[in-house]
C-alpha cells in the first residue's frame, strides 16, 4: 500500500523558516519533519511514498536525490571526483516526488497523483504532523467499516485550564488543559479506497471541504479515534516544542 504525503503548501504561519525551505523540510532534531513522518510509516512496513510537491519542490527532490550525502559519512577524492560512502544510513524507501502545482489545493494535489496509485487502496497524510498513530489499526478499522475513506481523529486538550466551582465560589475541581469539549478533530493519517479519486474535483478544491462533503452525503466516511500523541507543526512555537521533545529524549512519535 503506497503512502501519499501532501507536501506542497506555502506554510505561511511558519514563514520565518519556509522562506528558505518548504514546510515539510523544516527540521525537528536535525531531520526534516517529512523524514519523521516517513519513518512512522516505514516502522509498520510501508516504504513506498508518493510526495505531492509544490512550493520549493526542488528542496525535497534534492534531499532525496542526494540522501547519502545528507545522511552518511563519506570520502571525496578530488583527484578523480570519486565518492566513497563510509557508512550506510539509507532507508528501504521508494520515493516518487510529483510536481502538483504551486497554488493547487489539497484535493487537487491528491487528484494529480491518481495515476501513480492506480486502482489500489492507499494511505494519505499531511507533511507537517507527527503522532504515535497505529497505522495497521487504522487499516483494520477501515476494512471493518467498509467505507471509502477513514480519517484518524484526535481529541485535543483545551488551551486553558477549567475551574469547576459551586454556587458560593468553592472550587470543586481544577483541570489543567482538559479535553476540548469532547470534540474530535481531523488528525490526517487517512486510509483511502481508490474510489476516493472519483469524489475529487479540480485544483481549486480543498480535500477537507467539497470532496469530504460528497463522501459524507453517501455515508462513505469512517473515523478512527486516536487517543495517543499527535501534534501538527503549524507555527514556530510548535516547531520549538517538537525539537524540545526530541532533544529531551521524549518524542512520543518515535515509534521506530
Automatic annotation (TrEMBL):
Pfam family, one: NTP_transferase
Alphabetic keyword roster: Nucleotidyltransferase, Transferase
Keyword Acyltransferase in record: no
EC number: 2.7.7.33
GO biological process annotation, one example: O antigen biosynthetic process
Nucleotidyl transferase domain span: 2-206
Keyword Ion transport: no
Superkingdom of this protein's organism: Bacteria
Gene Ontology MF annotations: glucose-1-phosphate cytidylyltransferase activity
Name the record gives this protein: Glucose-1-phosphate cytidylyltransferase
Species name: Candidatus Aphodosoma intestinipullorum
